Amino acid sequence: EAAAQPAARTRLPLGAAVRDDPLEKEADYRDAIIRHCSQIVGEGGLKWYDLRPSRERFVYDRPDRQLAFATANGMTLRGHTLVWYGAMPDWTKSISSAAEAEREMVGHIEQVMGRYRGRIKSWDVVNEAIPDEPASRSDIRPSIWQQRLGESHIALALRTAARVDPQAQLVINEYDIEFVGPRFRRKREAFLRLLRDLKLRNVPLHAVGLQGHLRAEIPIDKEGLSAFIAECQTMGLQVLVTELDVVDEKLPGPPEVRDILAASRVYDFLDAVRAGSPIDSILTWGITDRYTWVPLYFKRADGLENRPLPLDRDYRPKPMLRVIEHFL
Ligand code: XIL
């Protein structure tokens, strides 16, 4: 007899962001993750403010538990995220010189990636480097790293990551790349400019992460997106979908109808990505409508629940799940 497998589940490269509280306390939640996912990522835990309440102290409890859960269930854990303007603890505001910024950023990557070397195999090294409305193609979001070190902090972060864990998949993760409209086309162009520049200078970078926080009210720019993806493919970059969900703040209709419309947005998005290159993995930003960041930022005005994710609040599959599975 072969050793018993962890609970039967799909081997699709499907994943989800996990929340620590239900992961610990709710069997239904755990079961859903185990049934549907072959990879997870912490919704929090590896972010600076979670990991480093003070400059000296690194608190690894949450990511350690996430990794233990993943390993026990035959899944992998993705690392999110090392260099980001968001989720910064207050003490980082006092980083005042280029030398100090370099020391802090490089030291952080060494500590955190070093601890999980060989165990976390894919990292969002840089998250959300492009501003919402880039003033030019070379506009970079004014994070503390950008303010103190300039754009070279991105190459430095990637080179450091490659040195600390040469086997790890290094990812730049971005949002608002997929929509119709001049604002989003400009963001796509600025992102491409950065990627080209990194590749041209032989900076280690393996994949582009498309967050995929789709907006129900904005159509997907299928041509623009697949052309962008094809360019990434040409540069030798893999493509991951890292944070898929549908922000349904303004989506009208009864729940069953909204679920179909949301699923069709996901279809348009994944179809356009696949037109440009094979999709290596898809992670959603949560698994169930019961636990999602969307109502915190995009609460519906009509008081009805947001339904951004592949399972409803009672863990029943929605049309979105079928659509995602179709692309894997
Ligand atoms: C969000 C989490 O889901 C929230 O729980 C947290 O309060 C704020 O961050 N893009 C990202 C993620 O890269 O890290 C964000 O996660 C959602 C948007």
From TrEMBL:
PROSITE patterns: GH10_2
Keyword Signal applies: yes
Gene3D superfamilies in the record: Glycosidases
GO biological-process terms attached to the record: xylan catabolic process
Reaction it catalyzes: Endohydrolysis of (1->4)-beta-D-xylosidic linkages in xylans
Keyword field contains Cell membrane: no
GO molecular function, one term: endo-1,4-beta-xylanase activity
EC number(s) recorded for this UniProt protein: 3.2.1.8
Domain GH10: 2-327
Keyword annotations of the record: Carbohydrate metabolism, Glycosidase, Hydrolase, Polysaccharide degradation, Signal, Xylan degradation
EC class of the enzyme, as a word: hydrolase
Family: Belongs to the glycosyl hydrolase 10 (cellulase F) family.
Protein name: Beta-xylanase
